[in-house]
């Protein structure tokens, strides 16, 4: 048991769905959330670039905030760097996030599923292995949704611009007859309510927020790091504009957000 905080990071606000899920699953744990908005998006960067970026973030979270576990709340960062980070920081537990291909393939009736993700995730070996291992008998339609992360970060969530961009990616999947849609980028979970309005009722939407939170709990229990009592503290750090961040994230954080601290990283 330790009062050290959980460290959560993403390329921006995308990891907030995972943050909320961890708050719900682990109500006594303090959390430090870092939004790397200055270097967002990750999806079009090279693997080596993402590895160096994420290494700098972990170094910062360990040095400045003494985190006890790191949650890579970004699909792209996970597929590009989590094994690298585990090798670089062998004493720090890591939990990552991958597209929910396995559960999607288990519940599909049409044997057709869609996955919205970044270009890096769609092209990754990790994604190919997920499909090979868990969805061999299923048609998986991977869609690289270029531009969505940028629109989310700029604050265009409930706009016609966002609606039209979503339809650009959703309509072809609907035509193919999918009945499960996997959100393969944590940013896209913030669009879940909008996506539900744009697709037929028979299409189920899956994301990784709750599974990641449950995995964080499992790892903390295994490492004897779980905190079972106490009043949690939540800190939000950003290397971009804290006022812009606050304006966008407040509706998603269920009263846990107070203000964002600007950091140099």
Description of the structure:
This protein is an alpha/beta fold. It is built from 11 helices and 10 strands. About 45% of the residues are buried. The protein folds into 2 domains: about 5-95 and about 210-260, Rossmann fold (3-Layer(aba) Sandwich); about 100-205, 3-Layer(aba) Sandwich (Rossmann fold), CATH 3.40.50.1860. Strands 4-3-1-2-9-10 form a 6-stranded parallel sheet, sandwiched between helices. A 4-stranded parallel sheet has the order 6-5-7-8, with helices on both faces. Helix 3 (about 75-90) links the parallel strand 3 (about 70) and strand 4 (about 95).
Strand neighbour order, sheet with most strands = 4-3-1-2-9-10
Fraction in beta strands: 15-25%
Number of helices: 11
Indicate the multimeric state.
single chain
CATH domain class of the largest domain: Alpha Beta
Summarize the structure.
The protein has helices at 16-25, 47-65, 75-88, 101-107, 119-123, 125-134, 148-154, 160-176, 192-198, 209-222, 242-249, and strands at 6-10, 31-35, 69-72, 94-95, 112-117, 139-144, 180-183, 204-206, 234-238, 260-262.
Tell me the layout of helices and strands.
Blueprint: E1 6-10, H1 16-25, E2 31-35, H2 47-65, E3 69-72, H3 75-88, E4 94-95, H4 101-107, E5 112-117, H5 119-123, H6 125-134, E6 139-144, H7 148-154, H8 160-176, E7 180-183, H9 192-198, E8 204-206, H10 209-222, E9 234-238, H11 242-249, E10 260-262
Parallel strand pairs: 1-2, 1-3, 2-9, 3-4, 5-6, 5-7, 7-8, 9-10
Helix pairs in contact: 1-10, 2-3, 4-6
């Amino acid at each position: 048991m330790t009062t050290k905080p959980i460290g959560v990071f993403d390329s921006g606000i995308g990891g907030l769905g995972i943050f909320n899920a961890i708050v719900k699953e682990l109500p006594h744990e303090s959390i430090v959330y870092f939004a790397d908005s200055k270097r967002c998006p990750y999806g079009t960067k090279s693997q080596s670039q993402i590895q160096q970026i994420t290494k700098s973030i972990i170094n910062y979270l360990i040095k400045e905030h003494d985190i006890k576990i790191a949650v890579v709340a970004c699909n792209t960062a996970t597929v590009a760097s989590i094994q690298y980070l585990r090798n670089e920081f062998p004493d720090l537990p890591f939990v990552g996030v991958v597209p929910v291909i396995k559960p999607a393939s288990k519940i599909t009736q049409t044997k057709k599923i869609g996955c919205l993700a970044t270009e890096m995730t769609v092209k990754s070996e990790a994604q190919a292995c997920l499909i090979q291992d868990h969805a061999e008998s299923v048609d998986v339609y991977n869609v690289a949704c270029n531009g969505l992360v940028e629109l989310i970060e700029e604050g265009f969530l409930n706009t016609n611009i966002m609606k039209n961009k979503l339809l650009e990616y959703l309509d072809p999947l609907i035509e193919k007859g999918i009945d499960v849609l996997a959100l393969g980028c944590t940013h896209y979970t913030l669009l879940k309510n909008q996506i539900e309005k744009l697709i037929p009722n028979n299409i189920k939407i899956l994301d990784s927020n709750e599974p990641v939170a449950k995995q964080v709990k499992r790892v903390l229990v295994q490492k004897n790091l779980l905190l079972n009592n106490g009043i949690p503290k939540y800190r939000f750090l950003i290397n971009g504009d804290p006022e812009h961040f606050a304006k966008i994230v407040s509706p998603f954080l269920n009263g846990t957000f107070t203000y964002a601290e600007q950091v140099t990283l």
